[in-house]
Write a structure and sequence with these properties.
The protein has two domains: about 1-35, no CATH class; about 40-145, Rossmann fold (3-Layer(aba) Sandwich), CATH 3.40.50. Helix content is about 40%, strand content about 20%. The protein has seven helices and six strands; from the N terminus they run ββαβαβααβααβα. The strands form two sheets. Strands 1-2-3 form a three-stranded antiparallel beta sheet, with no helix packed on it. The protein has a three-stranded parallel beta sheet with strand order 5-4-6, sandwiched between helices. Strand 1 and strand 2 (about 10-15) form a beta hairpin. Bound molecules: adenosine-5'-triphosphate and magnesium ion (MG). Adenosine-5'-triphosphate binds near residues 40 and 45. Magnesium ion binds near residues 46, 47 and 142.
Length: about 150
Amino acid sequence: MAEEVLASGRSRDRCITGIDALDNILDGGIPRGNTVLVTGSVGTGKTTLCMEFLVHGALEGENCLFISVTESCDKLMNNIIPYEFFEERLIKEGRLVFIDMPVIYAQLGLEELEFEMEEVDVLIDALSDIVTELQTKRLVIDSITSVC
Ligand SMILES: Nc1ncnc2c1ncn2[C@@H]1O[C@H](COP(=O)(O)OP(=O)(O)OP(=O)(O)O)[C@@H](O)[C@H]1O
Ligand SMILES: [Mg+2]
């Protein structure tokens, strides 16, 4: 596993994205535990990049979770099936899980248009519980802009 030696002398794990060019730029991958904001114009491949990141993690045995806010998970899954990097067994094995954010909103009784700060806390707690329950190592929320 890629690692970086910090000034303190401790080493820091890198989370290999599986996208070679990105891993090279990032010196071996994303520092483990970091949150990354993927930005870009419409249709530039943000969702696909995040899927590939999750699939790579799932292939390495990590539990991976994709929370989709605006596009239905069924549609997203159908979109990635043709890609070479995708393996359907990862979904059957539960290594790669897709959840529609509107389902979470409905379960929490949240209106999608506007949240109060208390509701944001409720949402964050719910997401945190899901991550704990599924023992998620890689989480993608697509997109955080839509949640905001
Ligand atoms: N690496 C790639 N190779 C080939 N096609 C790609 C690649 N990445 C994305 N695409 C294609 O480009 C299109 C847009 O990709 P994607 O949905 O990932 O973009 P996006 O940035 O998430 O778009 P949006 O801003 O609408 O959410 C899709 O048809 C996808 O299959
Ligand atoms: Mg997208």
